[in-house]
Amino acid sequence: MNTPPVQIQIKALIPTPGGAALFLGTEDKVMCVFIDTVVAGALAMAMNGESAPRPLTHDLMLSAFDGLGVKVTDVMIHDFQEDTYFAKLHLAQENDLGRNFLEIDARPSDCMVLSVRTGAPVYVDGEVWAQTEDMSEMFAKLQSEGGEPED
What we know:
By secondary structure, the protein is of the alpha+beta class. The chain has five helices and seven strands; from the N terminus they run E-E-E-H-H-E-E-E-H-E-H-H.
């Protein structure tokens, strides 16, 4: 079965004791990726349009990309194994010699920071999306209560 990818958006970033819960999805379905505190801070800054006084790792990467004429074209969450999502960062470079494409393995959280900073779309592999647990109910509960759901 060859299911097409699904474009998703960031719905919310909610702090947790160990980092943050990143809710991603569509109008019909929401998934959750747990991310560490450092990347959660970088993502929150990116979502708020803020910059650190000194470049963070993601800023450094984007500066290097810019200097090399490389653009982030999109992000693809392509796999899910043992409660972990896997992503690829898709890059394109265009110069006098032509156009080159590069696919880099990366954590979804790092990809989200780069996506927000560049405006690149985020996709989930169609088969991964179909197998992903729908967290819409938990997300709605968190939004309505302004806190964490009870177990």
